[in-house]
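Can you please make up a whole protein chain along with its backbone structure tokens because I've never seen that pairing?
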Amino acid sequence: MGWLPGLAEIGWSTRLGWYEGFHLLLAVNPPGVITGCGFGAASSKEQPLAETFFALRRSPHPGLASVGAPAAGPYVVDKGFEGHVNQETWGRAYGAHVSCPPKRNSRSPWPKQLRRWLAGVRQIVETVYEKLWHTFRLDRERPHDLGGFQVRLAAKMALHNFCIWLNGQLGRPPLAFTDLVAW
């Protein structure tokens, strides 16, 4: 019997390999502030999770306020969200404009400058995930019920956003947490 049976499952991540837990989606603005989140079992596919996320951002549900408000600009996503049909559906149904790079073997690849821009944006998102995962130790959480996981996740995201705010007050780069958080 695993951790949170029936909720947390085994999933695959190219960054982590096999893991047990949840698949976390974050909405992050350009400075790295987390503006919303959603999660499902680790075995969940990204596109259905994104569909639910965009739907709840468009038509909020009081019990799921964590997804946040719709983005003011496009959602920049990785190749796991690729697909013109999904992107058109999300735009039409939820007002979610998704910018996703084409696959390497695409007939219409992006120019190098656009790929570099996307890589810079994705680096901010990956840094935010790394801060939650390692700096704030989300990878070590094993609560006994779903409510405990939600509270711990919310606390870690609030601490992350607070650190960005504090860095702004101190005139430091937003994601420079190293000497702010000394365990």
